[in-house]
Amino acid sequence: MALSSLPVLHEIQMDDEANCEAGQLSALRKDLTPWDEEFKSVGKGKTPSLDLQIVDQQTFDHYDSKAPHGVRPDECDDGMLRSEREWLLEAIRESLSVFLEEETDFHLPYTSGRRRSERVILYSMKACESFREVALAVQRILCETRNDWIIWAQALPSEGPDESEDLEDFVTWIYTDKILATQPDAKAVRNLIEWKRGK
Questions:
Q1: For an engineered disulfide with 123, which of 160, 161, 181, 196 has Cβ 3.0 to 4.6 Å away?
Q2: 40 exposed, middle or buried (CB, 10 Å; 0-12, 13-18, 19+)?
Q3: Confidence of residue 113 (pLDDT cuts 50, 70, 90)
C-alpha cells in the first residue's frame, strides 16, 4: 500500500512474493508508469541516416576501449543508468524481432558499466543481409532517446547457422544519423546499405 501511493514508480522486484498480498501486488504492477517517461524524448530533431563515414582504427576504437560514451563526469553506474540500458535493449529487441528471430538471427549482449553504448550481434545470413533495416530500426530508437546512445553492431556470419562465404564478418558503430566503419569493413557495409532484401 505504501508503494502504491508513490507519485512515480516504474518497476518493482520482490525478493519473496509469497509474503505479499497478491491482489495489492497485482494492482501495483498494473499501475506502474512506463520507463518511457524517463528515457524517451521525441524532440531531439534528429532523423535516421545511413550516411557511412570511414574512420581510422584509432577513432573507431575510441568509444570501445578508450572512453565512455554519453555520460557526464558526475554520473555513476547506478540503478537509473542500468534501467535506462535495459529499457533501450528491450526497445531494440522488440523492433528487430518484427523481422528477425532473437538468438537465431541476432543477439543483444548486455554491456554493463558507466557508458551509453550497447551491442547488437548479427549471426544469420538473413540478419546480415538485413543490415540496412537493422541500422534504420536502431536509429529510429536512438533518435527518440533522451540521452545519446551509440550501438556497436557486429556481423558474424562465420559463426552463424548458415554456411556461406558470401559475406565477411564486419563491425560498425551506429549513431542516430550516421554509421562509422573502418576501411577494411567499409565495402561490405556500403554494399549492404545500398542493397535491399528481395532485389
A1: 160
A2: middle
A3: confident
